[in-house]
Amino acid sequence: MKNRSAIVIIALGALLLPVHRVAANSAEVLFDRAVAAERAGNFDEALDLFGRAAQNDPGNPAIYINRGIVHAGKQDYDEAVKDFSHALTLDPDNPGAYNNRGLAYEAKGDLQFALDDYTRALEIDAGHVNALYNRAALSFKNGRLTAAMEDLEAILRIDPADTKAALLVGRLQLAEGHPGRALKTFAAVLKTDRSNPEALKGSGDAHFLRGNLKKAVESYDLALEQARDAQTLASRCGTLTALEEYDRAISDCRDALRLKPNVFDAHYNLGLALAAAGRNQEAAEALTEAIQSNPDRPECYHNRGIVYARLGNVDAAIADFDYALRLDPRNVDALNERGTLLWRKNRTDAAIDDFALALRIDPKHAPAARNLSTAYLANGRTSDAIAVLEHALNTDPKDADVMTALGEVWMTQEMWERAQAYFERALKRPLTAEQKVKILSLSALTSEKAGNVKKAVKTYERALAATSDSESRERLEQKLNELKARR
Predict the structure, then answer these.
(1) Distance between CA atoms of 262 and 270, rounded to whole angstroms?
(2) Interatomic CA distance for residues 18 and 10, integer angstroms
(3) Percent of the chain beyond pLDDT 70?
(4) Is 102 in contact with 121 (CB distance < 8 Å)?
(5) Is 83:65 a contact under the CB 8 Å cutoff?
(6) Residues in contact with 440: Cβ distance below 8 Å, sequence separation at least 6, in sequence order
(7) Neighbours of 14 (CB within 10 A)
(8) Is residue 10 pLDDT above 80, yes or no?
């Protein structure tokens, strides 16, 4: 029988599905009408016509494959799987049917069945580009980055100009922690397609990971000129938050959610932007939306816990840290923050357990070391407090915060020379203005307590010169006047 081709395109896995052929008999007219109906978006009519074509030509696998495509277009993936499976009983070595059934299985969440079908398609036809891409994308989704890269490299050997494969290679490179390589990959795409929005967004993500925040925003701007995409808006929102441009960030995430209400990154980044802007109640609401969008992301509970703590809802904050730690038991920041709240509720032993566990996981976690030292000191365990901080400093000899904490411990013991030695050591490290003022103030107080008023005055003057904060300046000026009066 003579064969004809019919190209059917649906938004399943963002793929151009393969050409299928039907016999030139009475089923052919029904088939052509079904294809026309599907292209017009009349899915129910298309299904009816494909069904009538199947009655006329029940042994033709192409009819079932194309009907399966229409079922998939209606998101009726169970029926799609049935049709693709029936096609395979008629034509067991049809790689396209396996690939399409794999897409339907993946849409259903049956990922292992999907992987098996993509693999079977490739056993029949090792050069089946769609099956290679789909298996690579699924491997990427499952965290099997090496396997994904192998399939993508196979595609690029077949067609070095395959843009879709190159874009996924760039995404893989980002996931592997190689933003520099990803930038080169996206740049290669942009050489042939300078307005490709995915390559522009990928470049923005790579710049963000490299800390080039302004370049990231420029890339996102260009991407959004080509396509107003919710995910790109969410990414620009996160970058603008890091640049402390909170109003623009919040606007971007809200725009993203108007375009696509269930974008997790838009809810999550909106929560972070609102929290950074001090709008904590709104931040808690946005993070709750993020949790409803994806309840298995520990960072959502962690950050909502921080926001609840700021709002004074300590019990809700602890509950969120508890849940974050169930999802990610090695989250040292959540352990430290939960410990801080437990300490505030006078649950001393539980707080100490959290701080100590955080340090066992990450011996360089200076905030946990300082908090554990404070807890020990409050319980009269001075030697333990000093030992914790000295161990932390041995782990990271350049940590100015730990040096400062050790100085403060020695101040409580009125060991002024030892305290001063740690403050002077800390002052030699790179410091923020806030850190410098704090350490100079502590050093000045130590000199004052040791009876060296002249040195205390000079050190307070240094602290005064280092700050532009009005409250800090007022406090330091008052202290200086008191000391000068004593001289």
Answers:
(1) 13
(2) 11
(3) 95
(4) yes
(5) yes
(6) 427, 459, 460, 462, 463, 466
(7) 9
(8) no
Alpha-carbon distance of 279 to 90, in angstroms, equals 62
The predicted model gives 217-228 an average pLDDT of 97
Residue identified by tokens 């030139």 is 24
Per-residue pLDDT, 28: 87
Distances (CA, A) of 201 to 10, 230, 365: 24, 11, 34
Interatomic CA distance for residues 235 and 216, integer angstroms: 9
Token look-up 């994904």 returns 148
**Tokens encoding 253:** 């995430």
d(CA 137, CA 155): 12
How many Å is the Cα radius of gyration of the chain? Answer: 31
Which residues, including other chains, have CB under 8 Å from residue 41's CB and lie 6 or more apart? none
Q: What is the pLDDT of residue 27?
A: 81
What is the pLDDT averaged over residues 72-95? Answer: 96
What is the C-alpha separation between 472 and 463, in angstroms, rounded?
A: 9
Tell me the pLDDT tens digit for each residue of 104-141: 999 999 999 999 999 999 999 999 999 999 999 999 99
**Beta-ladder partners of 435:** none
Alpha-carbon dihedral 290, 295, 298, 300, rounded to 10 degrees: 20
Please, which pLDDT band fits residue 412 given cuts at 50, 70 and 90? very high
Predicted confidence (pLDDT) per residue in 427-451, tens digit: 999 999 999 999 999 999 999 999 9
316/299 Cα distance (integer angstroms): 15
- Count other C-beta atoms under 10 Å from residue 18's C-beta: 18
- Dihedral of CA atoms 355, 356, 362, 367 in degrees, nearest 10, equals 30
How far, rounded to the nearest angstrom, does the alpha carbon of residue 92 sit from its chain's CA centroid?
41
Phi, psi of 6 (to 5 degrees): -140, 120
Amino acid at 319: A
Distance in angstroms (rounded) separating the CA atoms of residues 267 and 262 = 8
Cα distance between residue 219 and residue 477, in whole Å: 48
Give the domain 1-160 fold: 1.25.40
70: its two tokens: 């229409």
Q: What is the pLDDT of residue 444?
A: 93
Enter the DSSP assignment of 55: H
Q: Is 3 helix (H, G, I), strand (E, B) or coil?
A: strand
Computed from CA positions of residues 180, 185, 188, 193, in that sequence, does the dihedral angle turn out positive or negative? negative
**Distance between CA 393 and CA 159 in Å, rounded?**
54
Which element (helix H / strand E) includes 4? strand 3-6
Rounded to an integer, what distance in angstroms lies between the CA atom of residue 393 and that of residue 373? 13
Tokens 């060991």 correspond to 415
Torsions phi, psi for 16 (to 5 deg): -85, 110
